[in-house]
């Protein structure tokens, strides 16, 4: 929090992303600080904490902040009582939306992503390589383009053991049909595309889809 300006919190209070008493305040004037923010919103109820976000390098205000009330009912009072003006500038208080928890990157799995496959490589080729070198393969899948009907140069292989997957991915590069390919642990789609952007174009393709 060094780069941000914060008003002293009430003793025993603490900030949480999902606090129902928290509002986001946008459109702040460059000169507005946490004390001014607290002074303005204190008329709506007791305040636990005020925060003005600042650039970590320049220390200039990023023109938005957060206010956390003791009573969540104060949030509704603020939202319903606009318009709001602070330091001769219209501001825009809204209910703060909690951050979605970041999906966890999987470290133990029986499924691998295989990228860089040659156009001639088939699922049988993929299965044969890993089965002959690392043991039984329970599933093998190439990802195909729905328009061209050709595979997109990557696929997924599911093996019998997480330890075998660790070994394969530690080696990372393998040669299938005289083409060097790359292996990584397959990750769920939401890990690789948490906002749903670029679906199917990343290194891990469609994940578990």
UniProtKB/TrEMBL annotation:
Coiled-coil portions: none
Annotated GO biological process: regulation of translation
Subcellular locations according to the entry: Cytoplasm
SMART domains: RRM (SM00360)
Keywords attached to this entry: Cytoplasm, Repeat, RNA-binding
Signal peptide extent: none
Gene3D superfamilies listed in its UniProt record: 3.30.70.330
Gene Ontology MF terms in the entry: mRNA binding
Pfam families assigned to the protein according to its UniProt record, in alphabetical order: RRM_1
Chief place where the protein resides: cytoplasm
PROSITE patterns tied to this protein: RRM (PS50102)
Recorded GO CC terms: cytoplasm
Protein's name according to its UniProt entry: RNA-binding Musashi homolog 2-like isoform X2
Lineage, highest ranks first: Eukaryota, Metazoa, Cnidaria, Anthozoa, Octocorallia
